[in-house]
Amino acid sequence: MTASPLRIALVAGTRFPVAEPFAGGMEAHTWLLAQGLTERGHDVTVFAAPGSDPSIARIEVIDGGRFEPSARARADVSMPPDRFLREHHAYQSLMLRLAADTTFDVVHLNTLHHLPVAMAELLPRPPLLTLHTPPTPWLESALTLGTTVRPVAVSQHTADAWRPMTGPIPVLHNGIDLQRWTAGPGGAGAVWTGRLVPEKAPHLAVTACRRAGLPLRLAGPAPDEHYLRTVLMPMLGPDAEWVGHLDHDALRRLVGAAAVCVVTPCWDEPFGLVVAEALAAGTPVAAFRRGALAELVTPECAVLVDGGDVDALAVAIRSASRLDRGAARRHAELSVDSRRMVAGYEQLYRADAPVEAPMAS
């Protein structure tokens, strides 16, 4: 006996496409969730930025009809930046459309933007909202208005941060496709992956790896050109190389060929997808103990130190490189399997389905 499929609207961000190479963890999460739900037989429409991958589900671009303000409006002192206005209008148009559409069984807000949350009261049914971030002023304000929203957090750390406003909420860790993220052979060097931005602090990974005596390869997008040019690039050399922004297959090979994955957040990570990816590749982790990272690892597969302590991180890098790769992979299989994540969202969807779906043999 199986439940009938659901018609799901998955609302993503407007700034980056849901496609490889992913701009960040949210895009990877949306891609994997849409693919997994489609494979489970659901009718999924992803509302996302141009260039999103049509192989995972039906894609509809969030563009708001390409709104352009008049010359008089542009001349007003209150005129916001163009990107802010385009994003606001795009989400406003989408939410008004979804408010009039009664055919979706579920609307899932998988975006950091506040407007879909603030307008959630207009929807025929309460939408699900995945909280990928600690509290921000705009999103807090929207949640105060959007009382029908059903939030779920990507970690217990994130759920605890939102608790004063939301009360206790469900937690669903992000997942990894363990069929694709297979264990690698390891190697002699270290790896760092993610967005090359100050709050991720790859420059601290370079310093720590040098003190540990391990060569480092870095991979990821570089959205902050000033940081890249003035801070990180001058530090690179024969023992520290940036290999660019890689698709998932190339990234898996890179991470799987390292002895240790170095993770250096200078902010409280809401989840830490790079940790999950490293463990899936069988690569132990050396990291700053910030945000949710401690939820994702055990002493058998990672060594954590106080945030910002580069000397301690150098020691941790050497220690983690000697940990059992099989233990790292086994922990990933138990904790970050994407099939468990998709099934968890499916359960949350059905908890508020309009009518119990008829059962079929």
From TrEMBL:
It is an enzyme of class 2 (transferase). Its EC number is 2.4.-.-. Pfam families: Glyco_transf_4, Glycos_transf_1. It comes from the Bacteria. Residues 24-180 form the Glycosyltransferase subfamily 4-like N-terminal domain. Residues 193-322 form the Glycosyl transferase family domain. GO terms for molecular function: glycosyltransferase activity. Keywords: Glycosyltransferase, Transferase. PANTHER family: SULFOQUINOVOSYL TRANSFERASE SQD2. This is Glycosyltransferase. The lineage of its organism: Bacteria, Bacillati, Actinomycetota, Actinomycetes, Kineosporiales.
